[in-house]
């Protein structure tokens, strides 16, 4: 254990030493010739109005001089650029929990009378680090591709966007596939957590409603059409909750979704109010939620129904003469029904018809409020509130603690050493609703470098 800890400390020091030698030239900044914070609000994970416009245009803005490009080639016409924009984002994380059992809480009296060990901390060097290729690939066409590590294997995902000027607005289509970023990955540019990379806190499960309710994350492959004007942003699409056709029957259908947001400027503040929803069903194999069992149990097809909807708000601009951002997300329902069966029917179905693997979001409601203010251009101070109400039936494992119902309070800071090097620290106090689960806390420290 001491050797692992020593190795982790050495890794962090090496990481920070590397960070001091890096330049602020991520992929999109390299293409446009602009500073990173021209498109990002405060820190590296939030977009401002200019960043939203750049994404909705299919990443079309570019500079004439491509001298900073990593890969170059000959011009081939059709508006295809002579460069390939690449960037790397590295992360080092230390997540330390106190009085945490299985990541969910401390049981005062366990089922077998045996004490359970609390979480001693999780050290992750380069966890969630990514290699990206992105930007304009042709006139009216852009892409963002990502290679990352998950569970000790390389995972590839991304999106391709085709966007056209429609008067003073943009209209287009996005095709995407992701293993972690959720159903709204194709074209979601607000910072309310519907798209996992765009959120105010690193500890997304304790600070953001869409993330805590498993609505703005997870595997998804889909297509969506969008319209983006000065006042209205609207999108409709459909997706399947996995990366490929494995687990879906040939007559399976995709889950439709929609998103609407209205923007209005009030002096130095920009207000965005939105709504979103998913409703539909598809046919899946009974092992779709636990593909490791495929071939080991009798095969059958079942119906998976999904109903989710909610409201969100984003208020950005100057407050007390300082840059600030307020986000609110209310997941009013996120319900998954398997095989049209109640929990009792589900448990007594023949083995060939049972579904293996508990649905992540059986029936969940959540609300979150996050606020960040910048007393200095390089320093952001933030607070968050989260309430999660899990109403769904689950097949509980006796050695685990179900403490999903909870209230969490979080404080944190973001400090940018340079525009591409950021330190994040967040401390959460969690109050589970169960009377036999003690309050616990979580301290997260993250160093992020993009180049």
3D structure, described in words:
The chain is 9% helix and 47% strand. With 451 residues, it is mainly beta. The protein has a single domain, classed as Porin, CATH 2.40.160. Strands 3-6-7-8-9-10-11-12-13-14-15-16-17-18-19-21 form a 16-stranded antiparallel barrel. Strands 1-2 form a two-stranded antiparallel ribbon. It has a two-stranded antiparallel ribbon with strand order 4-20. A hairpin with a 2-residue loop joins strand 18 (406-418) and strand 19 (421-432). The protein starts with a helix and ends with a strand. Residues 1-25, 67-78, 110-120, 341-353 and 394-400 have low confidence and may be disordered.
Sum this structure up briefly.
This protein has 451 residues and is mainly beta. It has helices spanning 2-19, 27-32, 49-56, 209-212, 343-348; strands at 71-72, 83-84, 86-98, 106-107, 122-125, 130-138, 141-150, 153-166, 169-178, 220-228, 232-240, 255-266, 269-285, 301-319, 322-338, 363-376, 379-390, 406-418, 421-432, 437-438, 440-450. The strands form 3 sheets. A 16-stranded antiparallel β-barrel has the order 3-6-7-8-9-10-11-12-13-14-15-16-17-18-19-21. The chain has a two-stranded antiparallel sheet with strand order 1-2.
